[in-house]
Structure formats: structure tokens, C-alpha cells
Amino acid sequence: MSEKPISERAARHMAAFNDSVRSGDWAAFADRFTPDAVMRFTGMPVGPFTGRAAIAAGYAAQPPSDTLTVTSGLSSGDTDELRFAWDNGGTGTMLLRWSDDLVAELTVTFG
Predict the structure, then answer these.
(1) In the chain, how many domains are there?
(2) What does the alpha-carbon distance between residue 39 and residue 22 come to, in Å, rounded to a whole number?
(3) Nearest of 13, 5, 1, 90 to residue 44 by alpha carbon
């Protein structure tokens, strides 16, 4: 992967995430995932969630309360790796694998 500004698809996804934090509308955010997408959290007792409906239910049950800012990103083919900072403190990474413009896999690691 090469270091460069984050991809447009990743920038749109992060903007949609922050919009959902502010609005509380996680159903619309879940539509950004493929019907059979998988979302995992490393080091957290949450998930994994398999399928768009399970992802939507996961966000509805435990919605994030903080927005984030991407600090750097790597892109290669259908994969984006993003480093981020929560706006109220803390850091993490996201590994997104795409199918066209939808997220097929998301792995989030905190810290």
C-alpha cells in the first residue's frame, strides 16, 4: 500500500459515520455496507457482525457517541487502511475492504 491522501470512498464513509454520530441515524449508515458484509472489532467485546441487518442492529444497540478524524491512510486496490483519532480522545485503525462503493469488510482496532 502507498501512503497518500485517503481515497474518496473512505472520505465519504468517514463523513457518513460522523453524520450518523450527530444525527443518530445508523440505519442509513448501515446501507453503506454490502448485504453480506462483516464488521469486526479487535480488542473489544463487541461483534463480529455479519450482514447489513446485523451491522445496523449493532449500531442501534451501541451507537458510537464520538466523531472521529482520519489522521492518515493507505490505499491499495479494494482496501483502505485508516488511522484515526476520536475527537474526544483516543486512537485506532480501520481496515476497509470494498466491493464497488460498498464496504464488504470492516475491522476496527482501538488504541
Answers:
(1) 1
(2) 21
(3) 90
Looking up residue 103, the CATH number of its domain turns out to be 3.10.450.50
Q: What is the pTM of this model?
A: 0.89
Over the stretch 57-91, which tens digit does the pLDDT of each residue have? 999 898 999 999 999 999 989 999 999 999 999 99
Q: What is the 3-state secondary structure (H, E, C) of the chain?
A: CEECCCCHHHHHHHHHHHHHHHHCCHHHHHCCEEEEEEEEEECCCCCCEECHHHHHHHHHHCCCCCCEEEEEEEEECCEEEEEEEECCCCEEEEEEEEECCEEEEEEEEEC
